[in-house]
Amino acid sequence: QQIAFARHYGPLNVGLKKAGKRRERYANREIIDISNVDPEGRVYERSHTATISNLANQLWHSDSSFQKPAMKYSMLSAVVVPENGGQTEFADLRAAFDSLPDEMKRELKGKAAEHYAWHSREWLGDTITPEQAETFPPVQWPLVRKHPGSGRDVLFVGIHCTKVPGMTLAEGRMLIAGLLEHATQRELVYRHEWRPGDLVMWDNRCV
User: Fold this and answer.
1) pTM for the whole thing?
2) In the predicted model, is pLDDT for residue 37 greater than 90?
3) Which domain holds residue 197?
């Protein structure tokens, strides 16, 4: 049902799964299984790539910002949820831009950021193969994008951002870190407390 529903919004995109060969509990390759257990029901080892992937998912990101075109929408359904923790947070990147000082808004509108699929995994110590790296080469997006529906400006930052062309690596990463801290202030964030059966859908172009 979820796959049929998703098809109403366009072709399905499974993101990083296109570069992975890990066995999952679901045979359908159009389903991304976000879980801490393997197909036999055993909890993944702490060093397993699936565990690292789950940790990377806890870092602030917009789904598939490392692709062109990127995903418009994502949806997540809960089957089994932990008794404690496991919430998903969404930062409003429209409000993040609106709340920037005017001088910073003007400065950012002339800049872009490079997004790399494996940045968060490498940062967490995962080893990326040449084949994986080749599947998702870096792409650039403006730091300020205009949402095609509302026309509002969006501060487009996340953990996939690796550098800012025209700035040194250090300066660019400091800028990205500062913008990410600004965008994830508590008043700009919605936290979803999952219950089994929940289905949440969101627009990656503004969160």
Assistant:
1) 0.89
2) no
3) 2-203
> 113 and 61 in contact (C-beta within 8 Å)?
no
Give the count of domains, the chain. 1
The token pair that represents 204 in the structure block:
């990656």
Which one, of 154, 124, 128, 126, lies nearest residue 141 by Cα? 154
pLDDT at 162 over 90: yes
Q: What is the CA radius of gyration of the chain?
A: 17
DSSP, res 114: E
Two structure tokens written together for 103: 């001088």
* DSSP helix/strand/coil, 112: strand
pLDDT above 90: residue 139: yes
CB 96 within 8 A of CB 178: no
φ and ψ at residue 28, rounded to 5 degrees: -70, 115
Residue 50 pLDDT > 80: yes
CATH number at residue 75: 3.60.130.10
Identify the pLDDT of residue 19: 64
